[in-house]
Amino acid sequence: MRLSRIIAAIAIAVSLTAAAFGQTSSNPATSFLGSVGDYFTSFNTNQPIRHADGIQAWTGADYQNGLNFAQEIGVSKAWGNVSNAFAFTTEGVVRDAGIGGILVDGNFGPGIAYYHFDTQVSAGVDGGYNFSESKPDVEIYGDVRKSLSANTWAGMRLAYVKVIGDKGPDYPVVALTAGFGF
User: Fold this and answer.
1) How far is the C-alpha of 175 from the C-alpha of 62, rounded, in Å?
2) 48, 95, 128, 165: which has the highest count of C-beta atoms within 10 A?
């Protein structure tokens, strides 16, 4: 009885695999992960992410250990010629817990960004104040942004926050962001 179930499961798996290899499709990205991979490995040359004034504003959801613990609002400015692939940036970010408007922290600092058509990769260091710990903090971040339209983008940010003088563990923050440029 048990052997017949195993043989039946193997026969179904083989037939489904054979059917999947026999199918043809005009879109090779037939899975969610495949379409996400195609999106991040292709570039739209007609939709640059860097705008004339170099100003971007965004909002995002911050996650720590898989839990949404804060929302962030940020503004950044890219300095230099718009035609350059690299630019120095400054940014300010404020996080709030969303519960009665409790501020988690506020940070400001320099960074550097690389632009490739509709994609921006940036990194930097922000310093500020952690209101929940009542101590200064330092944040090292890296993010990737991809244009959605002529003025909007979506991205992901990975930051490592160190609260100065705190004996507790430091914490990484993953943020899913969306914003616009002008």
Assistant:
1) 4
2) 95
pLDDT digits (tens, 9 = 90+) for 5-42: 666 656 565 555 544 444 455 555 467 777 777 777 77
Contacts of 61 (CB under 8 A, 6+ apart): 68, 71, 72, 175, 176
Closest CA to 106 of 52, 70, 82: 70
Six-digit token pair at 16? 């489904």
pTM confidence score: 0.73
Selection from 139, 140, 148, 176 nearest residue 44 by Cα: 148
Q: Which residue in 63, 46, 47, 35 sits closest to 171, CA to CA?
A: 63
Tokens of 177: 């962001």
Rg (CA), the chain: 22
Average pLDDT over residues 152-165: 89
pLDDT at 142 over 80: yes
Of 22-31, 136-145, 168-177, minimum mean pLDDT range: 22-31
Instruction: Give the residue among 29, 78, 81, 23 at the shortest CA–CA distance from 55.
Output: 78
